[in-house]
Design goal:
about 170 residues, alpha/beta, Rossmann fold, five-stranded parallel sheet, about 15% strand
Length: about 170
């Protein structure tokens, strides 16, 4: 099990974090990047899906190795990278890549060689998840496989063929 310890503020919750997950509807950053600990950590930001909202501040984005679900979607929908780009805090090369490239082994996703802030030697990775259909399909398939293996669930018949000829 994992112990859950309530904290009085975002800064207190961040102080000894190794992994940070945000999944809010907040239009503004939910913590200040300057409060992040001076050590390697990973952030999953999954709540903001519009160009004008963001859960993560510019400081955190600018000082992180950034990955997105899909590059085009990220640059069109993720306020976390659109706003810092418009403010001049990052350039278009700041986003390292997307899930497809990472899964294909085309990118190094680990923290080991990434040195962001030379003054503090901070190493952070940030995954901005806007969500894609393929993620939903992958989860659905895994759930289906687990249900079949356990012999649970209800098969649903549709009134159309499952296969189509093109």
């Amino acid at each position: 099990g994992i112990d859950i310890v309530p904290r009085d503020s975002p800064a207190a919750a961040l102080s000894d974090a190794d992994i940070i997950i945000t999944i809010t509807t907040s239009p503004e950053p939910v913590f200040a990047g300057v409060d992040l600990p001076d050590k390697p950590l990973h952030i999953n930001a999954m709540g903001a899906h519009y160009p004008w909202v963001r859960e993560i501040d510019e400081y955190t984005v600018a000082n992180s190795r950034v990955f997105v679900d899909e590059m085009r979607q990220g640059w069109n929908e993720e306020g976390e990278i659109i706003m810092p780009l418009e403010a001049g805090a990052i350039d278009r090369n700041h986003v390292i890549g997307d899930l497809g490239a990472l899964a294909a082994g085309k990118l190094d996703g680990c923290l080991a060689e990434w040195r962001v802030d030379t003054a503090t030697s901070t190493r952070w990775t940030l995954f901005l998840s806007g969500g894609t259909g393929i993620e939903d399909v992958a989860v659905a398939r895994r759930l289906y496989e687990k249900a079949v293996a356990r012999g649970i669930g209800t098969e649903i018949q549709f009134n159309q063929p499952y296969e189509y000829e093109l």
